[in-house]
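Recall the central idea of this unit: under ordinary conditions, the amino acid sequence of a chain determines the structure it adopts. In this exercise we apply that idea directly, starting from the sequence alone.
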Amino acid sequence: MTSSEIRKKFLNFFQEKQHKIVPSAPMVIKDDPTLMFTNAGMNQFKDYFLGNKKAEATRVTDTQKCLRVSGKHNDLEEVGHDTYHHTMFEMLGNWSFGDYFKKEAIAWSWELLTEIYKLPKERLYVTVFEGDKADNIPFDQEAYDFWKGHIDESRILKGDKSDNFWEMGDTGPCGPASEIHVDLRDEADIAKIPGKDLVNNDHPLVVEIWNLVFIQFNRDLLTVNLPLD
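Accordingly, the structure predicted from this sequence is:
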């Protein structure tokens, strides 16, 4: 499957789920002093999540050109050390502004990967945020429970803040994340070491393919646990 086919299937899938397809934002950000470049798909939607602007559509899908060479999300020092870090790349995304949340996002990601892209279910693992006492953020029980409806609990792994909590910058919208990983190794290697032992351990063939970010907090300079209205 080519990159064009992957992109087309993604956008068409979410368009059928009543998402409006919107264009990529510029990589050079003009009106946000907190960021030098667009480093994630949500950048152009920041004001919607903060309630500063009203979204034209409550469901949106896009393909965003990203550049990660500065700031919090800087991949420069990772390039060349693994098979999946890049400085310039394209990020496919589906977005909800006051419409659906974890239940639908989890169900649709599973449907797209297993029924449209035809990835084998037995090669997939998911992670959920384990919580963080220092920031007073609880374990994401809600995401865990929704995932149990799609995948065996043995394939649902808990991750800490470094892997399963998403922040764009030192302040601003943020929240727990749920990653989906695929094990691309051959059967002989899988028989030796189960894929769950290699998730988020820098293995070149056990890689993250989707990050579901649940933006439900707004970090200020003092604390992260400020629920968005």
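Residues 102-116 form the longest helix (15 residues).
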